[in-house]
Q: What sequence folds into this?
């Protein structure tokens, strides 16, 4: 596969408003980027609550401080009219007001992270679309490192690492580094150098825009809706991308973001709930793409990474450190809950009672925006 790599054409000033919630993605008739003689990129940030306002602002400031600035930023507000108006008033700007436009739009697709990302990407004309969570702040060289692997035309998607920013004194004892995926961060066992992988994480990932549209975008029947942590939409998308002839999906650990962890996510209750829904999500995805693709990475994690984590925790516990016992218990509980969710969902799907995965939606590319 050799996706399009030539620069896009020159752009006029981008609009800073969009249609109201529930309407189709707008036909702007203009590009969001200008030709700068290099691989063009746009960053899509999706937000749903004003409780994260400070983090959204910090993330946008992190984008502005990049060693390599993007050609555009699209901030998608997920079915929150009050936040949409505030963001348009305080954060939107045109091409002439800075080095790149910041377009603030309403999610025109179904509520959730997948619909928001599809809405944002439908407005992008850049060659690469970059996704950043609303509670993540990139390091200054993040975008430069994320885009560097695209010099290989077969590279279709690139993601990076996410370092946790813990509330209070630090990571809770029950969340061993092997379990940091529970809070959307890089966990022990992930690659530490540029490596081909099955899937990336939506808080810090990028994809060639043409490839994203070719495979149909994110499956809007999957993914987080507000605080409900049903996931695997990134995994399912990356599996479709990786199935293209010659396509490569890479993890670049040096492309780092700092991912804020809210206080409710460091409790035992969240660990159990998130692990249960991870199992549910994996079973739903397996029903779509097959067991091999859905769980290929997970088997290595379960058989190698987790046992070592349990042994490390037990060893600490035996030396008189109670946090070691909690770490080992957290791993066992998480695995048990994930297995429960997976089996329950598989049985439910067999009986027609599970969360049946729908066919993915193909994002609409408005005239004059996507090519």
A:
């Amino acid at each position: 596969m050799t996706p399009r790599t030539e620069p896009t054409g020159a752009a006029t000033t981008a609009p800073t408003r969009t249609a109201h919630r529930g309407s189709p993605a707008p036909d702007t008739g203009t590009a969001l980027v200008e030709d700068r003689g290099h691989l063009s990129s746009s960053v899509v940030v999706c937000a749903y609550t004003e409780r994260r306002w400070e983090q959204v602002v910090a993330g946008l400031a992190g984008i502005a401080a990049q060693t390599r600035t993007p050609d555009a930023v699209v901030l998608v507000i997920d079915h929150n009219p009050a936040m949409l108006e505030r963001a348009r008033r305080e954060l939107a700007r045109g091409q002439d007001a800075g080095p790149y436009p910041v377009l603030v739009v309403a999610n025109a697709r179904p509520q959730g992270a997948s619909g928001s990302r599809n809405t944002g990407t439908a407005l992008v004309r850049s060659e690469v679309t970059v996704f950043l969570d609303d509670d993540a702040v990139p390091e200054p060289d993040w975008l430069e490192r994320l885009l560097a692997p695209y010099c290989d035309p077969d590279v279709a998607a690139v993601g990076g690492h996410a370092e946790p920013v813990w509330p209070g004194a630090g990571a809770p004892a029950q969340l061993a580094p092997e379990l940091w995926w529970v809070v959307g961060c890089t966990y022990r066992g992930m690659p530490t150098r540029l490596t081909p992988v099955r899937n990336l994480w939506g808080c810090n990932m990028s994809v060639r825009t043409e490839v994203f549209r070719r495979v149909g975008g994110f499956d809007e029947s999957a993914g987080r809706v507000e605080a409900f942590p049903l996931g695997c939409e990134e995994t399912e998308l990356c599996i479709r991308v990786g199935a293209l002839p010659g396509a490569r999906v890479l993890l670049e650990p040096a492309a780092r973001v700092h991912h804020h962890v809210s206080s409710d996510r460091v409790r035992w209750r969240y660990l159990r709930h998130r692990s249960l829904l991870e199992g549910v999500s994996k079973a739903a995805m397996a029903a779509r793409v097959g067991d091999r693709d859905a769980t290929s990475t997970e088997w290595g994690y379960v058989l190698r990474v987790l046992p070592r984590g349990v042994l490390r925790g037990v060893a600490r516990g035996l030396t008189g450190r109670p946090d070691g016992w909690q770490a080992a218990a957290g791993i066992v509980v998480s695995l048990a809950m994930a297995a429960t969710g997976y089996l329950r969902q598989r049985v439910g799907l067999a009986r027609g009672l599970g969360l049946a995965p729908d066919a993915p939606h193909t994002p609409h590319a408005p005239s004059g925006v996507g090519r």
